Amino acid sequence: MATEPSDGHAAATDEPIYVDGEEALDQIVAGNDVVLADFYADWCGPCQMLEPVVESLAEETEAAVAKVDVDANQMLANAYGVRGVPTLVLFADGEQVEEIVGVQGEDQLRSLIERYAN
């Protein structure tokens, strides 16, 4: 079960943070050096396959992991040009640096995060 920051500040946790709206994502991106945003849908099979990988990355890397339900956050998904799910957007130092569409291997995602986590 994911946690949401209770004090209004986005802090890296060892669990994915479920995002509701652009302001919430902006706070997470501003409050963490590296953020992996997972744009997903509950009905999406590949998204479900990616779920354990995303949870592992949240637990084992320095990145904060944000989960964005595209059905509940259509305007946010559109703002980031999400056309298909899963789409992973990586932020470093407050800027979008990578976008990956589709299921990716954990090792590939981990090395991508580590590249920006220095």
TrEMBL record:
Q: What is the lineage of its organism?
A: Archaea, Methanobacteriati, Methanobacteriota, Stenosarchaea group, Halobacteria
Q: Does the keyword Phosphoprotein apply?
A: no
Matching entries from NCBIfam families are given as:
thioredoxin
SUPFAM superfamilies per the record?
Answer: Thioredoxin-like
Give the Gene Ontology MF terms in alphabetical order. Answer: protein-disulfide reductase activity
Thioredoxin domain ranges (all copies): 5-118
GO CC, one annotated term? cytoplasm
Q: Which Gene3D superfamilies match?
A: Glutaredoxin (3.40.30.10)
Q: What is this protein called?
A: Thioredoxin
> One Pfam family from the UniProt entry?
Thioredoxin
Q: Does the keyword Transferase apply?
A: no
Entry keyword set? Disulfide bond, Electron transport, Redox-active center, Transport
PROSITE patterns, per the entry: THIOREDOXIN_1 (PS00194), THIOREDOXIN_2 (PS51352)
